[in-house]
Write a structure and sequence with these properties.
Blueprint lengths: L6 E7 L3 E8 L4 E8 L6 H17 L6 E6 L2 E3 L4 E5 L4 E4 L1 H6 L6 E5 H12 L8 E6 L3 E7 L2 E3 L28 H4 L1 H12 L6 H9 L3 H25 L3 E5 L7 H14 L7 E4 L6 H11 L5
Parallel strand pairs: 1-4, 4-8, 9-12, 12-13
Antiparallel strand pairs: 1-2, 2-3, 5-6, 6-7, 9-10, 10-11
Length: 302
């Protein structure tokens, strides 16, 4: 007897966009949609409304068996609570409880970077490794620390590599100065380019294109950002000795322009340390969505 295929909705909430998809048991994307993350007014209520609308839309395509959501910031995975998200300016957001009251299927909510790391650890670039780092480079920057095959959470506070001082030039949203996130996030790269070029509203994608074209200002901004990422990776390698560092998030779409300078930085800076492989996320910027699907299916029998 052939069983009916089950489908889940996977939603990856980011500081700029909400990525979502309807995904089957084979982790094939049936339908997908990206919408802007609400960043004004009652952000919490607007995010809830957006997620509920997405689930309703996908339910018109296939029956939805469960929902997996990932969320940025300091996140309590056990209880589904965003303790603090600096980019969304959200605090003590009981997102899982609030969604359960409005969505009539099983739902799980986890930290965005640790959820993306599940996809890369199970079936992606960190597969068959015991010790690895997954670094998400997007509007914010954080890492998932994988040791002895398990992802460390430490009550939601582990992996905040974005707030390590890499001697950056700019103030960070966390209130400190010199943080990696203030040097190398997609938002930081755009801001740095705007400051030097006096041209507002230039996206990281456009800056990457200008780098490939040899634009001097773009190359200077990019070089600084990549050096900061390399410095953060050097710290992680020295402390944790990972077998592989996987680079994901929106900035991973730059591919060689990200991978090559970070790899070269480590080649030049490491001495006694165990040298890891440095790889792009197998699922690219969709690692979060795939990870959400994996944890959503784990709620179901079979």
């Amino acid at each position: 007897m052939i069983q009916n295929m089950e489908y889940v909705v996977a939603v990856d909430v980011g500081g700029t966009d909400i990525k979502s998809a309807l995904i089957d048991r084979n982790l094939m994307i049936i339908s997908e949609k990206v919408i802007p993350t609400p960043l004004s007014g009652n952000t919490q209520e607007k995010i809830l409304d957006s997620l509920i609308e997405l689930v309703a839309e996908y339910s018109k395509i296939q029956k939805v068996s469960s929902v997996g959501v990932s969320f940025p910031g300091i996140f309590d995975d056990k209880n589904g609570i965003c303790i603090w998200s600096e980019n969304l300016i959200i605090e003590n957001f009981h997102i899982k409880d609030l969604l359960e009251k409005r969505i009539q299927v099983p739902i799980i909510v986890r930290h965005d970077v640790r959820t993306a790391a599940i996809a890369e650890l199970r079936i992606g670039a960190a597969k068959n490794t015991d010790n690895a780092i997954y670094m998400s480079l997007g509007t914010g920057i954080a890492a998932a620390i994988i040791m002895s095959g398990s992802i460390c959470a430490s009550n939601g506070y582990a992996g905040e590599i974005g707030h390590v001082n890499v001697n950056g030039k700019f103030a960070c949203v966390c209130g400190k100065f010199g943080c990696l996130e203030a040097a190398s996030s997609t938002l930081a790269i755009s801001k740095a380019y705007a400051s030097l070029s006096r041209t507002q509203g230039v996206s990281t994608e456009k800056i990457h294109s200008l780098v490939l074209q040899g634009d001097a200002t773009a190359m200077d901004v990019w070089r600084d950002a990549m050096s900061a990422i390399g410095r953060a990776c050097e710290i992680l390698v020295t402390l944790l000795a990972p077998e592989v560092i996987v680079l994901g998030g929106g900035l991973s779409n730059a591919k060689a322009a990200l991978l090559d300078p970070v790899s070269q930085y480590l080649a030049d800076s490491l001495s006694f340390q165990q040298r890891p492989r440095v790889e792009l996320a197998h699922f690219g910027s969709k690692a979060g969505v795939i990870g959400c699907a994996i944890i959503a299916f784990e709620l179901l029998p079979g």
